[in-house]
Design a protein that fits this description.
With about 900 residues, this protein is α/β, with parallel strands linked by helices. It is built from 22 helices and 33 strands. The strands form seven sheets. Strands 15-14-13-12-11-8-7-17-16 form a nine-stranded parallel sheet. Strands 20, 23, 25, 27, 28, 30, 32 and 33 form an eight-stranded mixed sheet that branches. The chain starts with 5 loop residues before the first helix and ends in a 10-residue tail after the last strand.
């Protein structure tokens, strides 16, 4: 054993104390830096936040009027950069022409040695800033921006623009560069809203200030190539000339447009046209083996590749759900689905190579079939996507990072089937996915904005765009606390974050059962039932929803935006829309109750009954007028951003409500008039007014398939999900069930009347023979997250079989003339459970069904996936 001498021990102790003191000093300095960063991040009006910020000791004004000087730039570079500043200056309301600031733009190689302070500082960051970074020094009334490239100088000007507009009044030094070299915003323009050329130019301008360097679009059918000009909608498209115009416009703002065309799946819109139907592998997939289809893709992609100016082209090719279900199934089975997919991608790769473009594609199919990347060229760029708040993103990153493949992470801002984009989910998703991607080698942040459902405005998305811009430029967690303040300053010129607070107050609706996930099923529901049918309204969440909406409205009313006022109007519309939905449920239930009272009073107290009917008619009229105002406001907002295409579909959701209310108002006024001196009030069901409140929460969203023909009424097929073993598994939307050699699809279905689901009405649309004995299947899942479920209640036709987790738990009894609710004892612990109902049609009673749990269990759903709503809420991507 070695023992130190006393002298050596003392010397060692001094070294330990010295090292410990250094460590403590470093920790103190780091803590001080952290606190300073947090403080600056909360007040510096720059977004994205710079990598390095050092505040000076002295005050300094930043007037927009400037003495513009350059060093090392040629005349064209100076003119371009000065033009951007002059445009900004002309827009600034408070611009002073009397006092000017000196703005000097200089390439780093030309930085004068006399500027010793900046030269000294530049040595620390010269290598870090790369081709897009910059240094900004504001001292003694002069602003110097230095960079290696014109792009870096342009981004420095964007930072100065934000400082100037916000009235920043201190000396400052900034060294800045991006976390990701490729920073993309990807806008879905194929599911409904397609922006006007002018609005896309405004998007480019606003995104450029955020240092976004690529804009891309989701394109299925809304382009008009010269070779095939007949598939684009007449009132909503981008022509090749317009794409070239936009590419050139983006160049002015140091942005490029990434081209794209859906080149495999999601092809149903083009295949629906008679002249292109033969190109289909299925109704949703173009056929890779069809010569006409291959020529079509070569023509269209070739034209688009030449019009979009970015070095990549996105062939998409995601979600090929029908890959092995079409006319080439035999061939695909012989070579494998992965080989079939890869062969098509290699064909597309060859098309793009002719036009000197690198191929991008979505990564989901390559994750599902892990051999696909081995069959494709190494220089393909994989766009790996996930839009939820995941605990880990390895599932979407490791398949590419582990093989050394180039990939970009694709978080999302989802409007899809929502009343307003879920910015809580988007913010967490963008942060988590970009951070994970950066750690594992992603070369870009490719933030997507999806519009499935088609009733959305881009002006609702900007908070997500700014979040994406920040996280694709600067991943530091220390700056997150100040984001909302900086967003308000840079986006609206407002120091108070009223808009942001109103936005997140509105998003509290996502946790209520009635407005869960803020999906649009509530908006799509009928205000009135069909004639002779009931409408049940569970309004237990309405008071909480109205409180949230009132608070959100008050917060937004306090906002005083100086810029981008359309964003505020769009949020105001969503608040008004939700408020009207809540009011309508209460008003109609109360008016219907008054009418029922009038019906009971009419023989003896006709005058009182007439008064009640008039009150109901007045309430319905007032409600109708509010829907008209809401419709007209949205129409104006739509046309400020979008082309007319799809507007009729959006307006139809308003019109159906307005027309229904108008019809009810007319029926009430007519009923109020005595016939032969006698008040004759029709039954509520006769005038579509059989509306009542209920405490029950019914399962209103299902996957449905069928109808399956059977030999005898009241019997059901023996198979569980499909007669064919290949598909005899829990279904997904669009999945297949086979029966007697025929394929049936599982389709999503959302009830519009609050409870009872009418299969006669649903299947009649599919053209089934009403007189034949038939059976429909209904499927959903239930995730039990709290206490165990001990019973379910099912109302259905006699002979309905109820299955849970693959086992039959009940057969609904009854007779041919009456369907009663049956209590089914069951024991469901925590976890996911699968429900299947086999529902036979009975010609003597309506072909209807419903299902619910006990009222003490709060139930919420994302489409056909239900959960008992304990404290552990699960918010799923739609």
């Amino acid at each position: 054993m070695y023992i130190l001498s006393g002298k050596k021990r003392n010397k060692m102790s001094r070294w330990v104390l010295y090292i410990l003191s250094l460590f403590l000093l470093q920790q103190y300095a780091a803590r001080a830096t952290h606190l300073q960063t947090n403080k600056v991040a909360g007040m510096l009006p720059v977004l994205p936040f710079p990598q390095v910020v050092k505040q000076g000791q002295h005050n300094m004004l930043y007037p927009a009027s400037s003495d513009f000087r350059v060093k090392g730039l040629d005349a064209a570079q100076k003119q371009r950069l000065k033009a951007h500043w002059d445009t900004f200056m002309s827009q600034l309301k408070s611009a002073s022409q009397k006092k000017k600031q000196i703005i000097e733009l200089v390439f780093l190689k030309d930085l004068p040695a006399t500027d010793t302070a900046l030269v000294s500082r530049s040595r620390l960051y010269r290598d870090s800033i790369g081709t897009e970074g910059y240094l900004l020094q504001a001292v003694s009334g002069k602003v110097t921006i230095a960079a290696h490239t014109e792009t870096g100088l342009f981004y420095g000007l964007q930072t100065l623009r934000q400082l100037t507009r916000a009235g920043w009044a201190q000396e400052i030094f900034i060294a800045d560069w991006p976390a990701f070299p490729t920073r993309v915003i990807f806008d879905d323009i194929s599911r409904g809203p397609i922006s006007t050329i002018d609005y896309i130019k405004k998007q480019i301008e606003r995104m450029a200030e955020l240092k976004i360097n690529y804009l891309s679009f989701y394109i299925e059918h809304i382009v008009q190539p010269l070779s095939h000009p007949d598939f684009a909608p007449k009132d909503g498209k981008l022509t090749i000339a317009q794409i070239r115009e936009l590419s050139a416009y983006a160049e002015k703002f140091h942005m490029k447009l990434i081209g794209g065309f859906q080149s495999f799946g999601h092809f149903e819109k083009i295949l629906a046209l008679p002249q292109y139907k033969s190109m289909g592998e299925t109704g949703t997939l173009i056929s890779p083996l069809d010569p006409k289809a291959r020529q079509f893709l070569e023509d269209v992609i070739g034209e688009l590749a030449e019009a979009f100016n970015a070095p990549w082209f996105n062939v998409n090719c995601d979600e090929t759900f029908d890959l092995n279900k079409g006319k080439s199934k035999g061939y695909i089975d012989s070579i494998g689905a992965d080989r079939f997919y890869a062969d098509h991608l290699n064909f597309l790769y060859g098309v793009l190579k002719k036009h000197k473009k690198k191929m991008m594609l979505w990564g989901d199919v390559a994750i599902e079939y892990e051999k696909i990347p081995e069959m494709l060229p190494r220089d393909v760029v994989y766009l790996t996507w996930e839009y939820g708040d995941a605990k880990s993103y390895d599932r979407w990153i490791r398949p590419f990072a582990s093989r050394g493949l180039e990939f970009m992470v694709c978080p999302g801002v989802l409007n899809s089937y929502r009343m307003f984009p879920d910015m809580v989910m988007a913010k967490a998703n963008i942060k988590g996915f970009t951070e994970a991607g950066k750690k594992q080698g992603a070369t870009g942040a490719f933030t997507t904005i999806w519009d499935d459902g088609g009733t959305y405005l881009f002006s609702a998305d900007w908070y997500g765009v700014y979040t994406a811009a920040e996280k694709s430029w600067n991943l530091s967690p220390e700056i997150e606390a100040g984001f909302d303040t900086r967003y308000s300053l840079t986006s609206y010129g407002e120091a108070d974050d009223h808009y942001v607070r109103a936005l997140f107050k509105l998003l509290e609706l996502r946790s209520l059962p009635l407005t869960y996930n803020m999906n649009d099923v509530l908006w799509q529901q009928e205000l009135l039932p069909e004639k002779g049918q009931p409408l049940w309204l569970n309004n237990t969440s309405v008071p909480d929803a109205k409180r949230i909406l009132a608070e959100a409205s008050a917060l937004l009313a306090a906002a005083k935006p100086q810029l981008n006022t359309a964003d505020i109007g769009t949020l105001a519309h969503s608040i008004a829309q939700y408020t009207l939905m809540m009011d309508a449920r209460q008003i109609l239930a109360a008016a219907a109750a008054r009418y029922r009272q009038a019906v009971e009073l009419k023989p003896e107290r006709a005058a009182d009954a007439e008064k009640l009917v008039q009150q109901s008619a007045d309430a319905v009229k007032s409600l109708k007028e509010r829907y008209v105002v809401l419709k007209n406001n949205f129409r104006k907002s739509w046309l400020r951003e979008n082309q007319p295409y799809w507007l009729d579909v959006v307006m139809a959701t308003y019109d159906v409500k307005i027309n229904a209310l108008h019809g009810l108002e007319s029926a009430l006024l007519k009923a109020q008039k005595p016939v032969a001196g006698k008040l004759e009030l029709p039954a509520p069901g006769e005038i579509r007014f059989d509306i009542s409140e209920t405490p029950h929460t019914y399962f209103t969203y299902w996957l449905l398939t069928g109808p399956f023909p059977v030999e005898k009424e009241g019997t059901v097929p023996s198979f569980l999900y499909s007669e064919n073993e290949e598909y005899n598994k829990p279904p997904i939307p669009g999945g297949i069930a086979t029966y007697e050699g025929k394929n049936y699809r599982w389709h999503k279905f959302a009830s519009k009347n609050g409870g009872m689901i009418n299969l006669d009405t649903y299947f009649f649309k599919t053209g089934f023979e009403k007189t034949a004995p038939t059976v429909g299947y209904a499927y959903c899942t239930l995730n039990v997250t709290g206490k165990a479920v001990s019973e379910v209640f099912v109302t259905s036709t006699a002979g309905t079989e109820v299955f849970c987790d693959g086992k039959k738990v009940a057969t609904v009894p009854g007779n041919a003339k009456h369907a009663a609710e049956q209590r089914i004892a069951i024991s469901l612990g925590k976890g996911n459970h699968l429900f299947l109902l086999k529902i036979p049609r009975n010609t003597q009673v309506p072909w209807t069904f419903n299902m619910r749990l006990t009222d003490d269990l709060q139930v919420v759903n994302t489409k056909h996936k239900y959960q008992t709503n304990s404290k552990n809420k699960i918010y799923e991507v739609e």
